[in-house]
Amino acid sequence: MSLEQRITAFSTLGRFLSQFSSETPQKIDDLPKNNLFFDGMSEALLRAQQQNAWFTLPHLRLTLQHWSDALSEENLKKWLASYEIHSPENQKTIGIVMAGNIPLVGFHDLLCVVLCGHKVQAKLSSNDTVLLPFLASYLEAIAPQLKGCIQFTEDRLEDFDAVIATGSNNTARYFEQYFGKYPNIIRKNRNGVAVLTGTETHEELLGLSEDIFRYFGLGCRNVSKLYVPKGYSFDAFFNAMYEQRDVINHHKYINNYDYNKAVYLMGELSLLDNEFMLLKKDSAMASPISVVFYEYYEDLASAEAILKEQEENIQVLVGNSVPFETVPLGKAQEPNLWDYADGVDTVNFLLNLS
Predict the structure, then answer these.
(1) How distant, in Å, are the alpha carbons of 218, 271, 280, 304 from that of 200?
(2) What is the pTM of this model?
């Protein structure tokens, strides 16, 4: 199967996903195999929500919208233009240990492996076993050459040549011990960080609210830490966060909010609280659900120095009007295909397997 054919298959998948990005699915008549899979996709979304209460239908639709945009033929070709990708002489089996914190979080790894001409053996998270197998079945239907190239398991990986594993800092130690003898990419905990200057507009802070609250803050690209200038007033920040107030109606979220608030109050810790999120001054990067940590900085030069020291703990840095490289506020959960997790080029890793 040529690279061009694989690109066509994934761009067709992108068009398929675009049908389900709104509350009422919009059927595309000329899409291959659509009559066979259209109703099944709607059912799969409901099953995904039933399996994992964090996967709400609005968040699932946002995920599908992101991937339908990303998988355009133009985007795929732009991404892959800088690589020399040929059908490998010795097709490898790549074991992928997938996380399940947000919907389809392992899809990018699967995409990279298939586009590079290798086989996928994916260990699914028990929190996300519905959508990826369904999308793989659609890919096989529109590109029969892919049959047998994508396999899923909830058990231990076996007979693989290389590994891509995503987990926490604790599981990474296990991964390094178990997979260390294989070529590997092992990802640990990272988080999104925002640098504010106090000059942000209301619209920019609304974007930050998406960076914080989309997927309830469970993604590695969600902003869990703020750096703000000394003397910063949080009034404008909280005004913008109010847009996300309905998050407190989700039963799992409110349980976390109530629990974390109680723990902090029993510890007599100082908090800023708007009744659905907590701000806590803390030097750590990873905050609990419903909590965002913050620290003050003296000036932007000192903030940049701190961020450089912490770069191994940062997945994405967001901010506007700062003199160093950041993603715009509101775009933390909208990575491009070439924005690799942990900054490790997955395609380059796959192309250099011996």
Answers:
(1) 25, 23, 21, 18
(2) 0.95
DSSP track, 141-172: HH-GGGTTSEEEESS---S-SEEEEE--HHHH
Q: Round to whole Å and give the CA distance between 29 and 32.
A: 9
Strand partners, 185: 164
82: Cβ contacts below 8 Å, ≥ 6 apart: none
Kindly give, in sequence order, each residue whose CB lies less than 8 Å from that of residue 39, ignoring residues fewer than 6 positions away.
Answer: none
Between CA 16 and CA 282 the distance in angstroms is 44
User: In the chain, count of helices (H) and strands (E)?
Assistant: 12, 11
d(CA 64, CA 152): 21
Evaluate whether 78 touches 103 at the Cβ level (below 8 Å): no
Q: Which residues of 96-109 are buried (b: 16+ CB within 10 A; e: fewer)?
A: bbbbbbbbbbbbbb
Digits of tens for pLDDT over the chain (354 positions)? 899 999 999 999 999 999 999 999 999 999 999 999 999 999 999 999 999 999 999 999 999 999 999 999 999 999 999 999 988 888 999 999 999 999 999 999 999 999 999 999 999 999 999 999 999 999 999 999 999 999 998 788 999 999 999 999 899 999 999 999 999 999 999 999 999 999 999 999 999 999 999 999 999 999 999 999 999 999 999 999 999 999 999 999 999 999 999 999 999 999 999 999 999 999 999 999 999 999 999 999 999 999 999 999 999 999 998 999 999 999 999 999 999 999 999 999 999 997
Q: Rounded to an integer, what distance in angstroms lies between the CA atom of residue 24 and that of residue 20? A: 7
As to burial, measured by CB atoms within 10 angstroms (0-12 exposed, 13-18 middle, 19+ buried), residue 178 is middle
Sign of dihedral through CA atoms 273, 274, 276, 277?
A: negative
**DSSP E strand stretches across the chain:** 93-97, 119-123, 150-153, 162-166, 184-187, 191-195, 223-229, 272-273, 278-281, 291-297, 314-318
Domains recognised in the chain with CATH numbers: 3-188 (3.40.605.10), 191-318 (3.40.309.10)
